[in-house]
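Methods — Computational structure assignment.
A single polypeptide chain was analysed. Its primary sequence is given first, followed by the predicted tertiary structure written as structure tokens.
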Amino acid sequence: MSRRRAVAVAGAVLVGATLLAACGTNRSEGDAAAGSSCDTSKGTLVIGMIAPMSGGVSAFGMGMRNSADLAIDQANENCTVPGYRLVFQPEDDQSLPQIAAQAATKLASDPKVVAVVGTYNSSTAQSAAPILAQRSIVQVSPANTGPALTRGEKAATEPQRPFPTYFRVAANDLVQGPFGARHLVQKAGKKKIAVIDDGKTYGVGLVENFVKEAERLGARIVAREKVGEKDTDFSSTIAAIRSSRPDAVYYGGEYPAAGPLSRQLAEAGLDIPLMGGDGIADPQYIELGGRPGDFATNIGAPVESLASARAFVDAYAAAGYAEPSSAYGPMTFDATNVIIGALAGVVRNGEFDESSRRRLVEAVQRLNLPGASGTVAFDEFGDTTNKVLTVSTVKDGEFEPLETGVFEPSN
């Protein structure tokens, strides 16, 4: 992973400050168990994960998988959960809600599953969260940004938490969309903006919240279009927005479509920047066609700027994973350590069974810990209390941070 890349993170090292201090290269579960002198007389407990480990956004999912694996290995090495050895069970949802539901059902049927890390997509979380909630299984997402997951369908006006078991360490789109709008309108000076989304929960919601703030700041939305997440030819979409003469495009979606869309905008003579959210903030966006001057928002501060993230970065590198940690690695590490820290408290004076799951939910809700991305804590809806975001631009073949700040809602 490039040191200059604008990887943004949201928290700190949680239990990780201690865990990381003892971290070495012994990352495999089997190796950790073999070399451990921990008391594991109470048996094993499972931490599941649901994430896209194949398909178009697998770069995100593989980084998430490795980062959770790192946190669990460290916990086992440090005997963090008294009497137990933790087992990691990642499930590939392929970014498909139906597959995510199947994975949630599989994990929920296992009495040894204490909690689940994930998902990546908001749409897959909508399928998985109700299944896990039925069994009182804690779910902590490092990446979901759809507001309805924590605040219901009337998230902006009449928030109501739908799942008491659901938490996330990523700021939602009520924060990310407006943060991007403020930069594009006020800092970059773009006043005629075309918006395009991919029709998915994440893309639609991000654009909706971007538009509200951009218009409040005086910008005009001169065109609105939709594409498919697997589209590769955007000629008709570009033709539809050309006559409105936009000075920027805001895209709600992910890098597999956003990269080619940016390239084809330039090829069609529209030499205007494309901006998107955290779904495009990956090196593959640039490889697929993202151009110098394009923008992306991301959750948290650049990892290079956070002393709290240095231990994670070093431990991840030492562990020798084949894939980069991705933009969501530090937050996945934090999400996993939230579960581990809460679990350690729950089982300190007893054993864990299915009836313990509610106590684990309560323990996660109460946590306030330093993590790799800053302080990790949750509000009454299960949202992170960390509202730090970053805007980055493409420069010299990488995302370079431009602006990092705490989002403050408008009056």
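Note: The first strand starts at residue 8 and ends at 9.
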